[in-house]
Amino acid sequence: MNASKPPTDRTHRAQRTRATLAAMLFCAFALYMAWHAAHDGESRPVDEMLLPAAHGEGPAAPDDAAARPELVKRGEYLARMGDCAACHTADASRPFAGGRAISTPFGKLYTPNITPDPDTGIGQWSDSDFMRAMHEGVGKGGERLYPAFPYVEFTRATEQDVLAIRAYLNTLAPIHYKPPANELRFPFNQRWLLMFWNLFNFDEGRFVPDPKKSAEYNRGAYLVKGLAHCEECHTPRNFMQGLKSGERFSGATQAGWQAYNITPDRAAGIGGWSDEALVSYLVTGVAVGHANAAGPMAEVVQNSTQYLSAEDQRSITAYLRGQRPVAGGVTRSRDSYGKPANDDVTTLRGATITSVNGAQLFVANCASCHNWTGAGVGASAPLAYPSLIHNSVTGAPSPSNLTMTILHGVQRQTKSADVLMPAFGSELSNDQVAAIANYVTKQFGDPRASITPDEVAALRAQPQ
Ligand code: HEC
Ligand code: HEC
Ligand code: HEC
């Protein structure tokens, strides 16, 4: 809450003027976007058709006691797919009770409690209230919800699947907890303004399978464009923070991290990865010789994609492979850079660290795990210390993920391994982090990538 003085007439007038201004601005945006929409051929289908065979069983009967455990189990799987727990859990001892701060360019939002608690959660919501939130982005009181709740994607989920998620959420322990109020700046605290946002950035409607594609592809499309909401991070945004439908999956920035281009382009995207590598990345967080999942993607793997069924793994791969490649001028793949260091830098180990010498700092802080050659230790085993050579983070044109990894380390728990790289943020200064990052990109990655201490400071300031 901001503890401002009681509003005076003058502040009221100022607020009204600002509101009018904001409304005018939004109308201008609206006209501009309308023009764009009219000149952009791609329009998404808005239809109520349900997904056919790819889905398996027919409509579930929620009141049929025998069908219930199955329904709840499916709901749990789908809730993982939608990663509801990630955003709606602030404290592991209060799962789904909300309170996690989500930073937006307009201020902070706190996620609501979605446990079945009647006072602070959604215990009093009917199934249709829940459906309306998931499909239309409208809350119980009819208020418009902020799109930080990914209803832009969730709208594509079938009614059956939404009801299955609801059935699962109903089985959670109700937690009495009221999350803090949002801290959004004016005019973004005016929910009604979302009307304009929705008009141009939100197509309400269920997924429509493409009859020309296989059931596998359609199932992948249903998940990726829907509950799994991969585009929330991997698709760039327009000035209104809406997804740019013309550049789907071509990469975007998320809380200081680059969610890389995952189109099938061989240089800019993941066209050079085998299906096995892609599946391995989604299920374990490791694709040997390509990438490891840190930051927001480590969370996605931990909470969501590690649980993918074998069938859904294949569907998601098939769908991603079938997307339009976006090169964006990139001519060499991130994971093709680097060679092991060959001048033995371990001799630097004994020397006192007097300056910000990248090689020295690397030997002192990183080489015990990644080896002074950068080749890692046991690089193809699970629980290995990965090679920094042929690694998308060191070969990326921007060293931001490398820097974020140094600052925050890597934490990722999956069925296959408990992965931990320590965070160096509190031990190393911005100069030191920059020196290590620049040494690592020069030695093991794309030598053109570099970062200044000020840029490290800016990344450090990003709330995680
Ligand atoms: C990327 C973060 C994120 C994910 C993932 C997410 N939510 Fe949310 N959700 C939010 C935010 C933020 C809000 C609050 C929006 C607002 O205040 O307008 C919200 C609001 C809601 C609401 C409305 C609650 C209320 O009290 O108004 C429901 C219901 C909900 N989410 C259910 C889900 C379910 C079910 C899933 C998984 C399928 C899910 N959410 C996944 C961020 C998320
Ligand atoms: C919350 C944001 C977020 C979501 C949601 C998300 N990703 Fe990511 N993704 C990232 C980030 C950030 C990275 C970079 C991770 C790193 O550098 O360690 C990444 C990396 C990847 C990579 C590796 C690319 C490379 O070259 O290193 C793949 C593949 C990928 N994501 C696929 C997916 C798929 C498929 C989905 C949906 C199921 C998805 N992601 C959902 C943020 C996200
Ligand atoms: C205690 C061992 C340890 C130390 C010390 C260590 N790392 Fe790591 N590093 C790891 C582990 C474990 C991973 C994650 C492996 C995985 O994802 O499976 C990792 C991952 C990485 C990645 C890949 C991240 C990604 O998103 O793909 C980079 C880059 C990296 N480390 C650089 C460094 C640098 C630079 C230092 C020194 C400042 C350092 N590491 C210190 C163990 C370590």
Automatic annotation (TrEMBL):
It holds the Pfam family Cytochrom_C. Heme c 3 binds at residues 366, 369-370. Heme c 1 binds at residues 84, 87-88. The keyword Cell inner membrane does not apply. SUPFAM superfamilies: Cytochrome c. Keywords: Cell membrane, Electron transport, Heme, Iron, Membrane, Metal-binding, Repeat, Signal, Transmembrane, Transmembrane helix, Transport. It is found in: Cell membrane. Signal peptide: none annotated. Binds 3 heme c groups covalently per subunit. InterPro entries: Cyt_c-like_dom, Cyt_c-like_dom_sf, Cyt_C_IC, Cytochrome_c-type_DH, Membr-bd_ADH_cyt_c. GO terms for molecular function: electron transfer activity; heme binding; iron ion binding; oxidoreductase activity, acting on CH-OH group of donors. Its main location: membrane. This is Fructose dehydrogenase cytochrome subunit. It comes from Paraburkholderia caffeinitolerans.
